[in-house]
Specification:
Blueprint lengths: L7 E5 L4 H12 L3 E5 L3 H13 L4 E3 L7 H15 L4 E4 L14 H29 L2 E5 L12 H22 L4 E7 L31 H13 L4 E4 L3 H11 L2 H12 L8
Parallel strand pairs: 1-2, 1-4, 2-3, 4-5, 5-6, 6-7
Helix pairs in contact: 1-6, 3-4, 4-5
The structure holds NADP nicotinamide-adenine-dinucleotide phosphate (NAP).
Length: about 270
């Protein structure tokens, strides 16, 4: 996208964490932003923050698991701002559990938010971003790039997002639409305190994590770079790129041992 000023973005998951921080950053760069999530009061707070800084924002309360609400969110954005240049799908929930213990209904619920909650807004945004030759961006995860212990369900949802977006990148290239994924490791957001257990409810004991947690602004830096550079992929932190390449060359044995060792030292609350 050449210059962000006066572009129009719809951001899901904009009430919190990465989505909220991305909305604030894009608004500061002159983007008009529609903010989607379920919690209206939190969206209204972000709208006030953006308007207080002289930007333009619209709250579009949306449950991304409902295709009709996603259609309405896209249509309301276009009605209000006159166009849609950019969709950022950040709505998501995290889960850490042993797959064999995990409740099937909890798995289905997570797929609804992380996979279909990305697919539905994307589906409805496509005609508009084709018209504006704009961007579709999904927030995936590093565990959407590489299988990781205790992340089977969450990883599956993010691998699904990667597959959808990588294929769309090819399908939409001839229409001038940029399609990119951002895959962060651990990021400092409220998500860290609401990671779901095998029962589909947040763990009541904090879940210990084996790697460094990155500031949310570092993640937003990469999202903005990806949008501006019309890049296919951004990994956070960037040094994981060469590690994934090494994994692909050597085969999984080294990466498997590395991950198994680190995660063994940080068991889930019900394994400790
Ligand atoms: N933080 C990390 O360490 C990390 C690492 C890798 C990837 N990610 C990914 O980054 C994305 C953002 O995560 P975050 O860290 O910013 O988490 P967060 O602070 O918990 O924010 C999650 C957002 O998703 C929204 N959401 C959840 N369910 C929804 C639904 N059914 N309909 C509409 N919105 C829904 C929440 O809003 P409401 O509750 O108001 O609906 C909230 O705005 C997620 O896709 C996550 O998987 C995060």
């Amino acid at each position: 996208m050449n210059g962000l000023r006066n572009k129009v973005a719809l951001i899901t998951g904009a009430s919190s964490g990465i989505g909220r921080a991305t909305a604030l950053r894009l608004a500061a760069r002159g983007v008009e932003v529609a903010l989607a999530a379920r919690t209206s009061s939190a969206l209204d707070g972000v709208v006030r923050e953006i308007e207080g800084l002289g930007g333009r924002a619209l709250a579009v309360p949306t449950d991304v698991t409902d295709p009709e609400q996603c259609r309405v969110a896209v249509e309301r954005t276009v009605e209000h701002f006159g166009r849609l240049d950019l969709l950022v799908c950040s709505a998501g929930v995290s889960m850490r559990s042993l797959f064999e213990k995990t409740d099937l209904a909890a798995i289905s619920d997570l797929m609804q938010v992380n996979f279909f909650g990305t697919l539905y807004p994307t589906y409805h945004a496509i005609p508009h971003v084709k018209q504006s030759r704009g961007s579709l961006v999904a927030v995936s995860s590093l565990v959407g790039k590489r299988g990781t212990p205790t992340y089977a369900v969450y990883a599956a949802s993010k691998f699904a997002v990667q597959g959808l977006y990588e294929s769309l990148r090819l399908e939409l290239a001839e229409h001038g639409v940029h399609v990119g994924t951002v895959s962060p490791g651990f990021v400092e957001t409220p998500l860290r305190d609401r990671v779901l257990s095998h029962e589909g409810k947040p763990w009541t004991t904090p879940v210990s994590i084996p790697f460094r947690v990155r500031p949310v602004e570092a993640c937003v830096d990469r999202i903005v770079e990806l949008i501006e550079g019309r890049q296919a992929e951004a990994l956070v932190p960037g040094f994981v790129g060469p590690l994934l390449a090494l994994d692909a060359i050597l085969g999984p044995w080294l990466g498997d041992r590395f991950l198994a060792r680190h995660f063994r030292k940080h068991p889930l609350p019900d394994q400790a």
